[in-house]
Design goal:
The complex is a heterodimer of chains A (264) and B (264). With 264 residues, chain A is mainly alpha-helical. Chain A is built from twelve helices and no strands. Chain B contains 13 helices and no strands. Chain B is mainly alpha-helical. The longest helix of chain B is centred in the N-terminal third of the chain and has 28 residues. Classes of the chains: A mainly alpha (264), B mainly alpha (264). At the A-B interface, helix 2 and helix 9 of A face helix 2, helix 9 and helix 10 of B.
């Protein structure tokens, strides 16, 4: 266990060295949050109550989703495993007396925690200063949000791991990555809150793991989903976390059986 | 200068086409990820009949004009942003030593036909917009529409060069550039009226995104919401484009003069 904590800590420290890049990221995510907020506010003005959110709710949704973006690791997270498969360095990872998947999970979590503290929170602060944001109504809501937020990170890992492991078969995982990024953008609620989707489509999309990356924690934060309903949503997140972890493990075992190290 | 561009770019093209399947998949995924923004607009219009008093048909024209211009700039000029990697890794020195324009070398070196996926998306929606927006076509409107595609591409291209120059001073600030380039392209997809007063002013005067599509579209669609600007604003894009190009050229010159090799 200690080794994984140490991996996570090192990963956190490594990401925290990119200070200027983090500042640039906060700036860019904030701008995108404001643009998305503007479109949603126009919707809220044209039809109050659309999507079950107030004007302030929509603004908070936009800012919060941008704040979670880097943390969940959807776009721009470096595909380190893929890179190591291409260069052959992955052989060193496979030789280690530590579990391959847990090792990378630890590294992913360390990175995520940094992105949350270094990037997510500043984005929320900027949003709060510029607009004033809605906050969870009760301590209980906040607690549920934090649990859901953690599950979102683990979902992000599950998807990221599969995208990376696909390199064992494809050698070049950029196609898979772009495909998954596109689906995530659409199905997570980042593009448009899922509550604005046409009814049937929204229902189906909510069952997918991507909804748990942005939409679920955001709705719990905003108090749209509370109590038993929120617990149900978190349950779905956890089920997907377990499923993705299992699929990742199976894919990895198949991959390592057929792996040919590209020497160099 | 154009010869250099042609030779380098066609070399890239040949290498792109070596991997046919990968090329096709990438181009398709570029198309898909770009059109998601339009899907977002369709979803929003599923909830409301108008955004800032613009109908879906009118927004389709506005969006198409924005994305076609952005796509062309993305195809022809956007690789300029890789100058940051050249500076960081020290390969920029090599470009400076060659007897060819460094700006052309940087751009042509990363030329990629895959970006045609974006142009195709812009062209498709633009074509639809021209048909469905109920435009009363006159010679002046046709001329202004055609001209706007050119001036819009030039404005976006100029912004790309201008913002790339930032890395001569702040090499880690690459991601902040996205806020103005991709952020600008994204902003232009919606009618200006949805944005707050300060953002509208910024877009009209400082970062002249409004001249890419909004002001021309106001004339072509026979609307009157010029947001306080006189009627000639609809025809001012060529002048604005010229100013942006001059500013970009000056920034590039000053940047190169300021450049000190990282030495590694």
């Amino acid at each position: 266990m200690r080794v994984y904590v140490e991996v996570a800590r090192r990963s956190f420290r490594r990401w925290s060295t990119y200070r200027a890049a983090t500042v640039a990221g906060v700036f860019t995510n904030s701008i995108f949050g404001f643009i998305r907020a503007a479109a949603l506010v126009a919707v809220a003005h044209a039809r109050p109550g659309a999507g079950g959110l107030s004007v302030k709710g929509f603004i908070t949704f936009s800012v919060l989703s941008q704040a979670m973006l880097a943390y969940v690791g959807v776009f721009g997270s470096t595909d380190e495993i893929a890179e190591r498969v291409r260069t052959g360095d992955v052989v060193a990872d496979l030789y280690r007396p530590a579990d391959f998947q847990l090792w990378w999970l630890a590294a992913f979590v360390g990175r995520g925690v940094f992105q949350l503290v270094g990037r997510g929170i500043p984005i929320l602060v900027v949003g709060a200063v510029v607009y004033g944001l809605q906050t969870p109504a009760t301590v209980g809501d906040l607690g549920l949000f934090l649990v859901s937020l953690l599950a979102a990170l683990l979902l992000g890992f599950g998807v990221w791991f599969l995208v990376n492991v696909s390199t064992f078969w494809l050698f070049d995982n950029r196609g898979t990555k772009q495909l998954v990024d596109t689906v995530t953008l659409f199905a997570s609620g980042l593009l448009v809150p899922l509550s604005l989707f046409p009814h049937a489509l929204g229902h189906v999309v909510r069952l997918l793991p991507f909804a748990g990356m942005v939409q679920t924690p955001a709705e719990i934060f905003l108090g749209v989903s509370t109590g038993v309903h929120a617990l149900g949503r978190i349950g779905l997140q956890v089920a997907w976390v377990v499923a993705l972890f299992g699929i990742g493990r199976y894919a990895l075992s198949r991959a390592t059986r057929r792996v040919v190290i590209q020497g160099g | 200068m154009l010869d250099t561009y042609r030779i380098l770019a066609s070399a890239r093209m040949r290498s792109d086409l070596q991997y046919r399947v990968s090329f096709v998949l990438f181009t398709l995924s570029q198309f898909t990820v770009t059109i998601l923004d339009f899907v977002a607009i369709l979803i929003l219009f599923g909830a409301v009949p108008a955004l800032a008093h613009w109908s879906l048909r009118e927004v389709t024209f506005l969006y198409g004009l924005a994305n076609l211009s952005f796509g062309i700039a993305d195809l022809l000029v956007s690789p300029i942003e890789t100058v940051q990697q050249h500076i960081q890794t020290g390969t920029f020195d090599r470009l400076l030593l060659r007897p060819a324009s460094p700006i052309v070398q940087v751009i042509a070196d990363q030329f990629s036909l895959r970006r045609l996926g974006k142009v195709a998306e812009g062209a498709l929606v633009f074509g639809i917009g021209c048909r469905v927006a109920g435009i009363h076509w006159t010679t002046a409107r046709i001329a202004l529409t055609a001209l706007s595609v050119v001036t819009g591409s030039v404005i976006f291209s100029g912004l790309w060069v201008l913002t790339s120059c930032v890395c001569f001073w702040w090499v880690e600030g690459r991601e902040a550039q996205n806020a103005l380039t991709y952020g600008g392209g994204f902003l232009a997809q919606y009618p200006l009226g949805i944005y707050g007063a300060w953002l509208r002013r910024l877009l009209a005067y400082a970062v002249p995104i409004a001249f890419v599509n909004y002001f021309p579209a106001v004339y072509v669609l026979d609307r009157h919401d010029r947001l306080g600007l006189p009627a000639w604003a609809s025809f001012a894009a060529p002048g604005v484009a010229l100013v942006v190009v001059i500013a970009a050229a000056m920034a590039w010159r000053v940047g190169i003069r300021h450049y000190r090799s990282t030495g590694s």
